[in-house]
């Protein structure tokens, strides 16, 4: 991963998306440790702040968890959620699923949503 960039917003986003692809493709599996910040800085040429932004975004969408001082570990991708007629999802840092009966469920951001066929 070599990506020297001057636009820090674009840079953290590119690193975030690269790491997401590694997780979603199965090259990084639940329990795997991400490279350290120092290793990512050396591999990418990005600043510590930029690397931390990318890892923070991975945490906010529920793909990794950081356990100080052990490192950042892959949590995996959540199973798809099937929506039925009358249900909706609101996206924030997490997803709020509102079921047809009015009940709600909080899901990690990035949870795949599958709409059920209506008959």
UniProtKB/TrEMBL annotation:
<dbReference type="InterPro" id="IPR050679">
    <property type="entry name" value="Bact_HTH_transcr_reg"/>
</dbReference>
<dbReference type="Pfam" id="PF00392">
    <property type="entry name" value="GntR"/>
</dbReference>
<dbReference type="InterPro" id="IPR036390">
    <property type="entry name" value="WH_DNA-bd_sf"/>
</dbReference>
<dbReference type="InterPro" id="IPR000524">
    <property type="entry name" value="Tscrpt_reg_HTH_GntR"/>
</dbReference>
<feature type="domain" description="HTH gntR-type">
    <location>
        <begin position="9"/>
        <end position="77"/>
    </location>
</feature>
<protein>
    <recommendedName>
        <fullName>HTH gntR-type domain-containing protein</fullName>
    </recommendedName>
</protein>
<keyword id="KW-0804">Transcription</keyword>
<keyword id="KW-0238">DNA-binding</keyword>
<keyword id="KW-0805">Transcription regulation</keyword>
<dbReference type="InterPro" id="IPR036388">
    <property type="entry name" value="WH-like_DNA-bd_sf"/>
</dbReference>
């Amino acid at each position: 991963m070599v990506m020297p960039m001057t636009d820090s917003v674009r840079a953290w986003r590119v690193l975030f998306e690269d790491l997401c692809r590694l997780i979603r493709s199965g090259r990084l599996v639940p329990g795997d440790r991400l490279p350290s910040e120092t290793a990512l800085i050396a591999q990418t040429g990005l600043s510590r702040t930029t690397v931390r932004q990318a890892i923070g975004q991975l945490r906010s969408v529920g793909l990794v968890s950081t356990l100080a001082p052990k490192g950042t570990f892959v949590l995996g991708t959540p199973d798809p959620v099937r929506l039925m007629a009358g249900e909706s999802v609101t996206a924030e840092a997490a997803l709020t699923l509102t079921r047809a009966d009015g009940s709600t469920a909080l899901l990690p951001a990035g949870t795949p949503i599958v709409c059920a066929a209506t008959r």
